[in-house]
Design a protein that fits this description.
Layout lengths: L3 E6 L4 H10 L5 E7 L23 E2 L11 E4 L5 H6 L7 E4 L9 H8 L12 E3 L2 H4 L8 E3 L3 H15 L8 E8 L7 H4 L10 E2 L7 H9 L9 E8 L5 E8 L6 H11 L6 E3 L17 E7 L5 E8 L3 H16 L9
Helix pairs in contact: 1-9, 5-7
Length: 340
């Protein structure tokens, strides 16, 4: 099988650099172009010294003529920019977006949550919201693959199977998520300059964080009932990782033992989702630098209430790793290729 040529737009951000680190280990991929704006002409090793010994192209400004020479375009760009690129895709091209440009199924919802008009409305129906363990081989039918946000990845993986199997009350789901500051991008250092970013915990986006929209959208695919949930994200003084603590009420007839058994059965053929023994306490350290999602179901002091813990690396399972995993499924590569 010939190697596929890839272009990475937004190659200098935390997600872009992580994606490069994964793709240089992928036996089926050649990185043809690294694109940026203010970094044109620089080597990618300027942004990460670990890439100093790797033979990689210098950073260039994106030009649509490059689409003639690549098979896959990865976009880790500010919201809206992948929409412009999608208008010029050739038959041979697959676009894998790590931002939010095609996560929402309706342009009206995109306008509501991202405060800007969608610039490629006709391409929304040509895209798929691709959480690999859920969508699987469906990605083969789409030219535009939209990778979920990091928070929703940590939340939807444990919750979707339980909503699908009608195990939970949908009236009172509480989600408390804590992320490393890399999830906010390199600009976080400027935004929080002088605000003690590295020693404090900050809550943000209360009630109206943008990821509410995709959590709601995806859960509604599995139920006709209204879903009431509260999602609160926090920025923590660590570089990477997400730990989501999810409080749910069980429906009558369901127990922790039954929930754990259901999750294990649902993910029995999934390499990267690991269901732990109930009441296992987990941390982000358990998943750093991996494409794994660890899930633990814990009892509370109330019989019908349980606490679900979910941990991922936001830059890998919540970003670059998920993109590579989707690519592997799309093109028939081994799902773990580049992700070991």
């Amino acid at each position: 099988m010939r190697k596929l040529n890839a272009l990475i737009a937004g190659s200098t951000g935390y997600i872009g650099v992580q994606l490069i680190k994964l793709l240089i280990k992928h036996k089926n991929i050649d990185i043809k172009y690294l694109c940026g704006n203010s970094s044109v002409g620089k080597k990618i090793s300027y942004f990460d010294n670990q890439l100093k010994s790797k033979k990689l192209p210098k950073i260039v400004k994106y030009n649509k003529k490059y689409l003639n020479h690549v098979d896959i375009i990865f976009t880790a760009l500010p919201n809206g920019e992948a929409q412009e690129i999608s208008k010029h895709l050739l038959t041979k091209n697959t676009l894998i977006d790590l931002a939010a440009d095609f996560r929402l199924n309706k342009a009206t919802e995109y306008l509501k949550w991202y405060k800007k008009k969608h610039k490629a409305i006709k391409n929304i129906n040509k895209s798929i919201y691709a959480l690999p363990e859920i969508t699987g081989k469906k990605v083969k039918n789409f030219k535009i693959i939209s990778c979920p946000g990091c928070y929703p990845t940590s939340i939807l993986l444990p919750i979707i199977p339980l909503v699908k199997n009608k195990c939970l009350s949908l009236k009172n789901i509480i989600i408390d998520s804590k992320s490393g500051y890399s999830g906010a991008g390199r600009g976080v250092h400027i935004k929080y300059k002088g605000k003690n970013l590295y020693e404090s915990l900050k809550v943000y986006g209360i009630s109206f964080h943008r990821h509410n929209s995709e959590i709601d959208q995806e859960l509604k695919k599995y139920t006709n009932s209204k879903i009431n949930f509260i999602f609160t994200p926090h920025l923590t003084p660590m570089f990477r990782g997400i730990l989501s603590t999810i409080y749910v009420d069980l429906k009558s007839g369901h127990s922790i033992k039954k929930i754990v058994s259901l999750l294990k059965e649902f993910y029995k053929n999934c390499r990267f989702v690991k269901i732990l023994k109930n009441d296992t306490q987990i941390s982000t350290n358990d998943v750093i630098n991996s494409n794994n999602c660890l899930i633990s179901v814990c009892k509370s002091k109330y019989k019908n209430k349980v606490i679900i813990l979910s941990a991922i690396d936001n830059l890998i399972k919540g970003g670059a790793g998920q993109a590579v995993q989707n690519m592997n499924i799309k093109f028939g590569f081994k799902e773990q290729e580049g992700l070991k």
